Amino acid sequence: MRIGITFNLKDSESDAHLPDDWQEEFDAPETVQAIATALRSLGHEVVLLGDGRSLVEQLLCDPPDLVFNFAEGEGVSRCREARVPALLEMLGIPYTGSDPLCLAATLDKDVARRLVASHGVNVAPGFLAPLTCSTESFNSPTLTSFARRITFAADELNEGIPSDSKFAEMNDSLRSIAECNSWLQELLRAYEVAFPVVVKPAWEGSSKGIRQTSLVHDFAGLQRAVAEIHQVYRQPALVEEYIAGEELTVGILGNDPPRILGILHVIPNEPGDYFLYSLEVKRDYRRRVRYESPPRLPREVIVRVEQAALRAYHALDCRDVCRLDFRVRQGTPYFLEANPLPGLNPNDSDLVILARLQGWSYLDLICSILDSALERISRTPDSIRPRRSPATLKSTHHNSGG
């Protein structure tokens, strides 16, 4: 079979106007090559397609039989992960993984929370802080400017110079700050959210925008964190009550029925009152955390987590593969987010680490994703099957993990 791979590569060029994690979702060349090597070892011809304009041109000129998709998309649109599968569906080319609706819904963390909660899965109390309120009132430059206006107006007053216009500016700034304060306080009350809270970008993956400073303990910290998300990431901020407890990630593969690959327990090497699996931790995971699978938790807790993960998988209508993150507090799992485009770095992606701890090789994992997609496509009714159906509906590898 001729299989194309869609992806986004990290760029060595940096941009001083963008946050240092702006490429965090993108992949290194070694990840693309690892997937290509696995597919070739299964006897398939592999074409590297990438993303963007060149992808469109290649698909129009010489489409593959199937696309192995893990392209994240560029920009800040909440639909960016849906672009490639939408293009493939328009051209009638089958692909691995979830469809455009699922990818858009899961990238929008607030939408994902609502869908999962509607299927009886616990989520942390939280709310969306949209861009409609001018949170610029919270940032340092604006407050500094405001302070300067106060000083200037006071100087004018001391000098006996009329300052009505300056006091009008001061009143406008005070009103803006007061409105934003009231807005956030009302959301906290309405959704019954208690401190501490975690503040994160609403439309990001790979822990983008989730730093140790994202865990805030008071209203002033909340103001600063929300303002930073709005200004740096140019999107709404999701505010969730911090769930103290065990950090777990669940791997799910397949369809009708999907099956649990395993549960990965993320354990901090330096226990404390609060643990956040933040970007700083993930970038330094070998020193700061250790992983266990299966977790050393009571069997009844494991069952609850597996049931919650499968419910969330169905609620979001995931296909073929997904990684779902949970916190467990006093035996109760709380859904954090789902990633139907999980990282596939052969060394340090959570799903790959989980598979390895379950006795699977990297080839086993890639083959299982491919087989899940091929089996799903083979069972699709002819009336809605992609126009280009893969010539071979099964890979030749059987994984060692069962």
Question: Would you give an account of this structure?
Answer:
This protein is of the alpha+beta class. The chain has three domains: 2-97, Rossmann fold (3-Layer(aba) Sandwich); 110-122 and 243-340, 2-Layer Sandwich (D-amino Acid Aminotransferase, Chain A, domain 1); 126-241, no CATH class. It has helices at residues 29-41, 53-61, 83-91, 100-107, 109-117, 140-158, 164-190, 219-233, 279-283, 285-288, 299-315, 350-357, 362-378; strands spanning 2-6, 45-50, 66-69, 126-129, 197-201, 215-216, 237-241, 246-253, 259-268, 289-292, 321-329, 332-339. Strands 10-9-8-11-12 form a five-stranded antiparallel β-sheet, sandwiched between helices. The protein has a four-stranded antiparallel β-sheet with strand order 4-7-5-6, with helices on one face. The model is unreliable at 134-162 and 166-175 (pLDDT under 50).
Calculate the terminal CA-CA distance, rounded to whole Å: 24 Å
Number of DSSP strands? 12
Number of domains: 3
Beta-strand residue percentage: 15-25%
The SSE order reads: EHEHEHHHEHHEEHEEEHHEHEEHH
The radius of gyration over CA amounts to 24 Å
Mean of pLDDT: 86
Kindly report the spatial arrangement of strands forming the biggest sheet. Answer: 10-9-8-11-12
Low-confidence stretches: 134-162, 166-175
Which shape, going by the Cα principal axes?
globular
| Sheet having the most strands | 5 strands, antiparallel
- Put simply, the count of helices is 13
Could you say which structural class the secondary elements and strand pairing correspond to?
alpha+beta
How helix-rich are the residues, as a percent range?
25-40%
